[in-house]
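Milestone M4 deliverable, item 7.
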Amino acid sequence: MQDFKVTQKTDTTFDISVQNKLFETTSTIDTGINYQLFLNKRADKTQIATPRNRGGWMGDLITKPDYQSGSFIYTKYTDRNTQSNKNDIAEFAKLALKYFRKIGAKKITADVVENNIYGIINIDSDQTLKYSALWRVE
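Output delivered:
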C-alpha cells in the first residue's frame, strides 16, 4: 500500500511533499487512516436531530451508493468522558477502518485508552501499521 507523504510545517499545518515535481509517497497509510476516522460520516436523525449538523461528505454522492466515507466519532464530541462513550468511539473507529479490509487488511483493532484512540491495522504478515493518539476524548 502507498500513501502521499505528508509533512508538518513549522506553523503546524500539513502539506503533501513534492520532490522533482512528483508527489512523494510512503508505505504507510496515515492519510487514509485519518481520512476514515475524522471525516464526518452522515448521521441519521436518531444520532443527530438537526439535519444541518449530521455531517457527511459530498463526494459520497458520486461514489458507490452503498458506501459512506468517514466515522461517527464526531457525534461524541460533546458527550461525557465515560467508559461507555469510549467504547462507542472504539467501535466507530473499527467500523470506519473496515474500509481497509476491502483493500487487503487482515486484522483491524481499535481501543480508547487514557483518552486516546490506539489501534493496529495488519496488512499482511510483513506489514503491521500502528496508529495512536489520533483523537482525544475530553
